[in-house]
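Q: Sequence in, structure out?
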Amino acid sequence: MDIHNEIKKGIACDSVNKPHSAVGRAVCISVHPGKMFLLPFLHWFNTRYKGRYKFARLVFLLDLFLIGIAVALAIVSIIGFLFVPKSFEDGIVFESSVAPTEVVSGSPSTLIIRYTNKTKEELRNAKVEIKYPKYFLLQETSPEEIGIIPIGGSGTIHIKGTMFGDVGGEQTFQTRLSFVHGEKFDVFGEKTDTYVFSPSSSALSLSLELPDKMVAYQPIEGIIHYKNTSEINFPKISIKPIWPKEFIFTKGQFEVPTVKSGEKGEVKFEGILQNPQDEITFIFEPSFTFGKDKYKQETLQHTAPIIPLPLTLNHSVEKQTVRPGEDIKFTIQYENISDVELSNVSFTMDAQSPFVKKSSVVSREKIAPKETGTVEITTTLRKTIAQSETSVYENLKIPSRPTATYTIKEDVESTVTSKGATIESQLTTPIIFDSFARYTTATGDQIGRGPIPPQSGKETTYWIFWHVSGTTNELSNVEITGILPANVRFTGRQTVSQNKGVEYDPNTREISWKSDSVMPTLSPTSKIVGIAFELGVTPTVDNLTHELLGQIQLNATDGWTGAIINTSKPDISALLTK
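A: Exactly. Output:
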């Protein structure tokens, strides 16, 4: 083909009719440069879009638009990074670090601030301001001032102090370098930095001492040992115990005042296990305490397996209602449910009451595995108690709980205590009944009349006093009586604290005081029941006895237990009184 035809094809070329010869392609490019630029896009459209989409051209143009935006953004970012001018402060290096790199709560550390002037101007009036974490104890700063930082100049500031913080928590130092620069005018500038540290451990050394194995229903004693390994004194230390739900805390103090450097000590605590499962876990969270702020230190934790009690106890009471001044008899039923022999066994009855005087102890040398048996325990009750011995003044009960202490020999020999369930027995009211005569009062005032001692043919008068006190239950159908001898008369003078006065029956010569109800009198807020009346005695030549009142008795019914109360007092003689 001649050149003339190749030139024609080059002029008429398009995306479909492409010339094959070099001459035709050269003519095509020279005549249609835009067409050649679009050839890759036409090829992309034909292979990726045409025939695949309903609106192929629209989708193609949308994709081209999105690609164009992405390319434009990338170009703008590159230009901004390469050509945006930096600030003056960007030429200043200002950074913080801490030494040692592992921060210990409560131990001294050093904050190191490094600065370098890489600008082309001198920095004047340079100073560093630091915002310390709360309760940071500053010890030393070196140097204290900077002044001028020349071009290319650098330096460090060392700030030594003790950092307090939660172990594993975060505390923050905020540092600020301020300065003035400029040749003609003073221009103020500043550079800031933030350093966050996290204590990995504590200078408060702690250890927990608890038994490796624990026995259910047993007293548990534990000790937390502490030591100040820092070179400074510590503030108050608080320890928050997280008790297992089966543990009843009974004794212990969990706050320690200032702990001096190098000082060590211990915190003791006690409690009782109830009915735990296979194992039990104790957790203690110690803290440095500053007022209401606390910084937690390393947590203490102890997990121990539980050994079930080998000896089970039950008991019964001979009488459900018991009387002051009498013995209570208990029967304890025991069973060794284990495969281990128990030795040096002592049985007793634990009765937490001020009325309990003493309890007998029954011993067994050995109890074989699976053995059952019974023992009898006797406990003696006191007749009365003082107000100061109790905080409960009405309807008292005597609790009883069987206890057995014995030795188990498994991995190691240990002494263990088993306790049974508690039974409460109603206590019939104690009662203090005083009966006496007086010629004068306790302060010496004369209340009687006539000669002392009484003389034949002359009457001498005395006052008789009956007092009821020390009762814990309401009394009903109360009656106090006495019999007047032949030569004694009731004068009629009397005074009582409640109800009607005393009554005298001349036929039976009985003098009596009655009340449907007497409320408990043991409480400090209650009043004793008082009855007082006057008697006159006139000895004769034929009857020289000086007896004032005989056969004195008090009878009542306990309103809570239903028990009958009977008590009597010796006869009152005029020769035995003042």
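The chain has five domains: 3-83, 88-201, 203-307, 311-427, 432-576.
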